[in-house]
Amino acid sequence: MNLVFLNSFEKVTELEGIVSAQVSIAEEFGEWRVWWHEKGDQTIPFQESWYTGMAWDEMIGEFRRRIGEKRRDGYRPLIEPDEGRQQTSGGRSVFVRKLELYGERHSDPELYESLRKWRSKQAASEGKSAFIVASNRMLAMISAFLPQTAEELQQIPGFGEQKSAMYGEHVLALAAGLARTTSFPLDWVDEAISVQEVELWMQERQEERRKGEQAKKELKQTLLQSVAEGKTLSELEPLVSLSRRELMTRIEDLDKEGYEMEPLIEAELAAVPADVVEQAWQLFGSSGDRYLRPVLKRLYDEKSLDDEALSRAYEWLRLLRLRYRKTKSGAVKEEEAAAEQTA
Fold this sequence. Notes:
- By secondary structure, the chain is α+β, with helices and mostly antiparallel strands.
- Helix content is 60%, strand content 14%.
- It is built from 15 helices and five strands.
- The protein has helices at 56-72, 94-106, 109-126, 130-133, 136-145, 150-153, 161-175, 189-192, 195-228, 233-240, 244-256, 262-269, 274-287, 293-299, 307-342; strands at residues 2-13, 17-28, 31-40, 43-53, 76-77.
- Strands 4-3-2-1-5 form a five-stranded antiparallel beta sheet, with helices on one face.
- A hairpin with a 3-residue loop joins β1 and β2 (17-28).
């Protein structure tokens, strides 16, 4: 699991004195998790799970909302942003925002695409989210400023010594030999882009995020209503304008959030022979449910399936896995409850 963010908080109370807490954000195989750990001199330590899911925007939104609640409750972070630096409404220094804006405006499309492909392969090899390797803005700045040395690469916000040591060789190889019209250090960007441009850009980005969040809410409502009605994936496709691969990912995300996906699972499994479904269920129990390919290979001769048939097989296995995991989780909870009653 990759720890992305960690900060400590304290609150002063009359009864307990100083109550300390930590908030952390971690990522594993594209799944984001946010926890709040709290303990005090006279209290039993406990942990709150604030978010578990695949959506970065939803995770950040929930993180900010809950941190706001804790601040209103009296908690203060031990590490505050540097108040001595000029800040934008987004919390980052104006100069960093200027670099990001310049990168967005002047990014080299071909290099940016090459960097994206490299990032995808690198993230897959490490079992990380692509965002952990490098954000889109970092790639845009690299493709705009064209660093040629490790020292220059480290001037890209977010690409410090650690990332430079891990990825610098690959990134610099992609940027090598490309002619650039700008220079390092990047202080000249401070004059090239005004504060007013940054503020306008930030406002536009905020409006785009607002519209995006609204679109996600509407998509979520459409999916939940359609699933409840027992629609199949083929019936859902034209309603939500997503590819089947994207649609399956959204379904799995909703399941992780606790929404009921059983009507869809039932509708899709109706087209699969009952004995094949039962065999897959048994294989989940004996071989584990983390990877689907070993199960699929026991069920089918892959060479006999065309691309569409193979995709459909993976789809119903993913859906069956949702049911299996929910059943297994329910059984564990029942065992724990029974153990508590007999204790």
